[in-house]
């Protein structure tokens, strides 16, 4: 049975933030399904900041060729084909891309474990590679958080940030979240349990961090970069603080002119470390991470609110929303 | 017996590089030696970049009060007083400052272990806190160097850099040194055994590093900061590289406007860490460090050439020489 795939592709590159006219939409029929391939009906796509970096030449993620379907991770259900242990009806995770139906090698996809009441969408939510696992790896494997730590999180109302706040609270830390606007700050405190919420749009962030953490910051989980990274560096604990560099959403629209952290010499002054990480580099710990997160979900200690955009035609708008900060929690697209 | 102390003090602060007229010289008699104090005849002072940072308000090392003797670490011999296990004739290390005779609490000084043919001046040389121990701690305790690593060192012809090059070679690493000018580059290769020497004054450093380390840099020991740090970040190994931030001599004359590393997101792209360190924070490992360095000295594998300036009256000139890069190896002043 042929499937009609509706896909979103890149029409042109642009310096700075993409615009709606940089994206095209078209329907294509999937006629042939080669051996070892499957057709996946895409259920939910994870809207991640890294997608933006594939839309500019010279990006640190591989730049998407013009005309190619916008890359995105997602979950879906096999509707045709098989191989590599996959059969029709199976739920999978992988690089399904911005489309309604993905034709992909079975070997490139991961079959989902749906035991213990886990839902497929949890794999782009609390258990997602770019959401829950990224939060866990940065906080626990990279920053090696301890219960006595004061933890600062930027982009705290986003998907990764929301998970970091909750994982740190579950481990007994004092948690300070930074987000934009009073609604997000209320969300941080009321929904996620952050001890302090700082609105970067209406506060002197460095002064607020200093007030909230008089003994300094032990762990900073950074999704934002720029001035917020400098504010954190200025407020590091006297020794052995750890910064996990997850991303720098404030810098992605002009990667040729990144604002380097002026206060980086605080690392030397205070015997501190700033560690970047690639989540897949820590795959050996994913089973441990998933087990911890799943247990916290069952206990009601982790809950990742979802902001779902419906219809693949709205994919580009959803991507721009991610950078405008117009969402709270986990932004996804359901084709 | 009263001692006449000739001392160098700070007369005025200045933005940017200090000038000779910012320093004063005077003779003062040491009349009284309180109980528990000693008078030390200063033998050799270590000329360290941190001294510069005490001469400007708002420095990350404590700013020296106007009129105070310029701080400096050094070795000398007790000529009067005693206490805390010190007696006349003992050799000591400590904050002796820019002067010929230091009056100091005995408890603030460390008695030197001169067994195994170690000379007092070795404690401001290969075994010095700010020279050999700093190199060892950054390379071994902080960057956790392995024999298979390609190691890049900036300021490689300075005292710390010279030690890093030799320690890394002794551990079996491939070593690339960066220094200014052909004489220093010759010194790196011929005296220290560096595999590659890059003259930052006459080369595109990023391109030369890329050519010298096609597989990328595993360890970068940074004394310089600025563009050289960015060049190293651009050339990190694909995973698990470690940068030890020892200092940033290129940035000390304008600490209010430090050039932050624009390429810091390479840390996230390549799962790398940038770690600052305070050498005294790693004091638990000093015995191990001294034993390794002393053994290498006996085997002739470590040798730290000395550039000695004679006469306390030339202290300020020597300090400016340190920043002008007009020396090779270990710059010291002998009052």
Written description of the protein model:
Two copies of one chain form a homodimer. With 335 residues, chain A is of the alpha/beta class. Chain A folds into two domains: 3-125 and 304-334, Quinone Oxidoreductase, Chain A, domain 1, CATH 3.90.180.10; 129-280, 3-Layer(aba) Sandwich (Rossmann fold), CATH 3.40.50. Chain A is built from nine helices and 15 strands. The first copy, chain A, has helices at residues 49-53, 129-142, 159-170, 182-190, 205-212, 226-234, 266-269, 286-298, 315-324, and strands at residues 3-10, 23-30, 37-46, 73-81, 91-94, 101-105, 110-111, 150-153, 174-179, 196-199, 219-222, 242-245, 273-276, 306-310, 330-334. In chain A, strands 3, 4, 5, 6, 7, 14 and 15 form a seven-stranded mixed beta sheet that branches. In chain A, α6 (226-234) links the parallel β11 and β12 (242-245). The longest helix of chain A is centred in the middle third of the chain and has 14 residues, at 129-142. The radius of gyration of chain A is 20 Å and the shape is globular. The two termini of chain A are 20 Å apart. The A-B interface holds A 60, 225, 230, 239, 245-248, 251, 255, 257-278, 281 and B 60, 225, 230, 239, 245-248, 251, 255, 257-278, 281. β13 of chain A pairs antiparallel with β13 of chain B.
